[in-house]
Amino acid sequence: MRSLTLRLALLAGLWVAAGLGGAAWFVTGIVTAQIEAALEARLGAVLDSLAAAVEVDAAGQASLARSPAGADFEAPFSGAYWQVTGPDGGVVTSRSLWDQSLPAASRDHAGVLLRQATGPRGEPLLMAERDLLLPDGAAPLHVAVALSRAATMAEVARLQRGLGLVFLLLGVGLVGGVVLQVVVGLAPLRRIRRALAEVRAGEREALAMPAPSEIAPLVTEVDALIRQNRDTVAMARTHLGNLAHALKTPIAVLRNALEASPPAIPVARAEAAALDRLVQHHLARARSAALAAGAAEVAPLALVEEVAQALRRLFRGIAITVQGDARARLRADAQDLTEMLGNLMENACQWAGATVTVTIAAEGDTMRIAVEDDGPGLTPGLAAGDAMARGVRLDEAKPGSGLGLAIVRDLAALAGGSLELAEGAKGGLRALLVLPRRGAGATSGAGR
Amino acid sequence: MRLLVVEDHATLAGQLRAALEEAHFAVDVAPDGEEGHFLGDTEPYDAVVLDLGLPVLDGMTVLRRWRAAGRSMPVLILTARDGWTEKVAGLNAGADDYLAKPFMMAELVARVQALVRRAHGQARADITLGRLVVDTAAARVMLDGAAVRLTALEYRLLAYLAHHAGQVVSKTELTEHLYAQDFDRDSNTLEVVVGRLRKKLGEGMIETLRGQGYRLAAG
Description:
By secondary structure, chain A is α+β, with helices and mostly antiparallel strands. Helices cover 50% and strands 18% of the residues of chain A. Chain B has helices spanning 10-22, 33-42, 59-68, 84-92, 105-119, 152-163, 171-178, 187-201, and strands at 2-6, 26-30, 47-51, 75-79, 97-100, 126-129, 132-135, 140-143, 146-148, 168-169, 206-209, 213-216.
C-alpha cells in the first residue's frame, strides 16, 4: 500500500461502508417492523370482529350472525380470508376462499397464534387464529383469519431499494470527498517534489517556496541540507585546490634534486618527507570537513572499547582499562571520534609503563574522555601547548609522524570541544578530551 | 624465515621483496587478493605483508578468510588508508600490525622482524643460546663475542633453528620456511648447508636426529 491516497480512500471506504450499511439496516428494520405491525393490527381487528359474530346452534354447527366487514373477503382468492371451524368439525369460510380452506392449525394453544402460511394460490399469508369457547358451548370453536403479505413485502422491498440507492450514492460521495481532500491536501508535497527535481537538475538554487505550516519546517530543513551540501562540496574543492598547490613546490624541489648530477639525495628525502606531511595534514582537514554532515548519536564507550581491542593487538604488554557509563551518548562523527581516540590512546600506549586507563564521564552538556598512562609524562620545561604543536615530537625515538596530538586538537576544536594535557595521577600524561554532547552546531542554533 | 607479500603495485612489490630479502627473508609475492589468499592458505609462512586495496579479492576479505580458517601467521597490513577507523577495523579483523603508506622501508622491515619474533615468543631482537648470539634485527651471528660470517642461506637456516631452539625441526619444515615458492628445493642442499654451519660454529651446536630432523641446543 504505497499510495497515501489509496490508503486513505480505502480506509474511508471501509468506514463509510460500515457506517452507512449499519444505518440502512437499522432504518429498514424500523420501517419494516412498522409495516408489519400495521398488518398485524388489522388482522387482530378482523379476528376480533369474526369472534364476535360467530354463533353455534344446538347441533354444534357454527354460523356467523353477520359477515365481517370488507369487500376483500367476498372477492375470490383476494388474499383476505377467514375460516371458522365448529365444535362438530363443520367449516364455514369466507367467499374469497371459494372451495379451498386455510391450512389446518393445531388446536391446543392458548390465546392468538400468529404465523406465516401459504394461501390457496401459493401467495404468502400472515395468519391469526385462536380457539374460542362460547358462553353456552361445551367444545371450543377455531377461528382463523389470513391476510396476504404480498403487498407489505413489496412495500418493504421498495423501501430497501430506495434506501440502498440513497446510501450508495452517499457513500460514493463521501469516499470521493476523501480522495479529493487527500489530492488537494497533498498538492504542496507534489510541488515540493517538482521543485527538488529542479534543484537536482540545477535549474534552481533552493526550494525557497511558501508551504503550509505543516510542511514549511520540511522545506526549511531541506533548504538547510542543500546549503550544507553545497558548502561541504565547496570546502572539499578548496581543500583539494590547497593540497594541489601545496604539493607543487616540494614536487618541483624533488624533481630538481633528482635531476641534478649527482642527485641530491638528502634534499630529495627531506622533500619526500614534506610531501608526506602535507598529505597527512590535508587528509585530516578533509576528514574534519565532513564533521557536520556525519554527526550522529554515538556511544563513546563502545568506540573506546573497539579502539582498545585493536591496540591490545599492537601493545601486548600494556593493560588497557576502559571505564565509564555504557549508556552515555554524544552527537559526533564516529569516524572523527575514532580518529581522536586512536591517536590519544596509541600515544598513551607508546609511552605507558604497563597501564593505560580511559575514563568516560558525561558532565552536564559535555562529554569528558580522559586517557591516562603511567609513563614519564610531559617533559619538564616543555609546555603542554608545545606538545600539541604540529609536527613537534616529544621523543624522536618513538615511531609516529608527530602529528597525532595536533590532529586531535584540531578535530576537537572543530567539534566545538578541546584537548587538555596535564600530569596524571600516576605521573604519566593525562589527555582530557572535552566534547559538547549535543554536537558542534548545537549552541549556535544555526538555521532556526 | 619465509614471508608472503601481497601487493598489486609491481614496483612497490619489487622494493619490498628486495628489502626483505636483504634482511634474509625468503619472499613470495602475490599480485592480487585471490592468489595471496591461496598462498597464505596453503603455504607455511612466518609472516605476511598484506595490502588492503587489492584486485580480485580485497585485503580485509583475505585476512578474514585466513583467520576464519584458523590460519594464525602474523599479518602486517600495509595500506594507504591511514584513518583510525580503518586501522581499528583491520586490527580487529585479525591483523597484528598496521603500517600506513607512505612508509620507510627500514620501519617495515623492523616491524616484520618484530612480528616474527613475537610469534615465537621472543621479546628481544637477539637470541642468546649459550656461546651463540643471533641478532635477528641486524642479521648477525656472534660466537664467543666474535662475528661469524655466514651466507644468506646459512643465516636463514640458523635463525630458523634459533627461533625454535631446543625443538626438533624436520627437513620438510626447514625447506618450507627457507625457500621462496619458485625455488628449486633439494634436501641435499640442506645437508650441505648444515655441514658448513657446523664447520663455522663447531660440532655439537646443531644436532642431527636421524629420520626426524635437526635441533639447535637451547643454550
